[in-house]
TrEMBL record:
Family statement: Belongs to the uroporphyrinogen decarboxylase family.
The protein's name in its UniProt record: Uroporphyrinogen decarboxylase
Family annotation (InterPro entries): UROD/MetE-like_sf, Uroporphyrinogen_deCO2ase_HemE, Uroporphyrinogen_deCOase
Keyword Protein transport: no
Subcellular compartments: Cytoplasm
Pfam families: URO-D
Site entry (Transition state stabilizer), positions: D86
Uroporphyrinogen decarboxylase (URO-D) domain sequence ranges: 32-41, 149-165
Function comment: Catalyzes the decarboxylation of four acetate groups of uroporphyrinogen-III to yield coproporphyrinogen-III.
Classification of source organism: Bacteria, Bacillati, Actinomycetota, Actinomycetes, Micrococcales
Amino acid sequence: MSLHDSHPSVLQRNDPPPLIRAYRGEQPTRTPVWFMRQAGRSLPEYRELRVGTDMLDACLNPELASEITLQPVRRHGVDAGIFFSDIVIPVRLSGVDVRIVAGRGPVLENPVRTAADVAALPPLEPEALAPIRDAVALTVAQLGSTPLIGFAGAPYTLASYLVEGGPSKEQLKTRALMHSDAETWSALLTWCAEITGAFLAAQIEAGASAGQLFDSWAGSLSLSDYTRHVAPFSARALEPVRELGVPLVHFGVGTGELLAAMRDVGVDTVGVDWRLPLDEAVKRLGPDVSVQGNIDPALLRAPWPVLEAHIVDVLERGRAARAHVLNLGHGVPPDTDPTVLTRIVEFVHAHG
Ligand code: CP3
């Protein structure tokens, strides 16, 4: 597969936007900035649009998903849109009964725990991804030169929701399965890799200029478990995407010990959470990848001078990398004052 002639990445080949330059390791004219979970509950215009519509239904309504994606781009002037969807959308589109419970997260009616449960997981039919392709096409048509980032959940994080049946701090059942039944584990992570890879590829083919793989809960794993039981499946998820040639980002929470292994899955940029200073992350990652991060989300509520000093520190440490994209160390908390996010963008564009 290759990208069609009117794809933004093809049209912008000779003059890529700052975000894409940074992901590729070129020095952009300004430090690009966007926020994980920039679309969503921190915005009153989002809360208003979502009244009466279930979360996953909103993701599957192309007009609504597109409008929600555009809201933070208009309001904050960030350097990218991130497609409004959820990591469990490909699970839902395969026909598995999954819902999102507000304040909790994805919940499954029937958790997937045995060899028979895994064997019964239905395939994701390519036609089922039509609402995703339509929403992306609608969005890039309105974004102009601002790139859209597509995303997907990595197989481990996705599998943890399937096995636990909901959000879980330490994913004990998931990690027990990993060590108890190699065949079932491999079958489960292969299924996750296939559906999540297809979900990300659909977004990129339809117009996204970069892709981010979220392995949010990989920080629960030891380096050896990550390398042996998880990384090969993350690489597999990226296979159908790699041939499209757009830059790829890999992010997880609490993954300081895993950063180099996450790089080795084959990405251009590694996202770093707030626990590890960026210059230390660069020491662990070496010179061949860009970094993204890592404002502590807690500091969004601190007085501006405190937050400003933190941003300056993040920017300075980010200079150790071949290129740096400013972001938070995890998603925007729902109760964030959105005017603070706009102020960060203005500050970074002026000083970064
Ligand atoms: O700007 C964006 O980043 C928008 C798109 C986005 C959403 N989910 C929308 C969403 C993205 C990139 C995600 C990814 C996602 N979803 C991840 C990986 C990123 C991360 O945070 O580590 C994970 C682990 C999920 C699973 C999930 N979905 C959780 C944990 C929750 C929160 C539940 C809650 O209410 O606190 C969701 C729901 C969700 N996904 C919301 C949004 C805007 C909130 C639901 C709502 O608005 O009603």
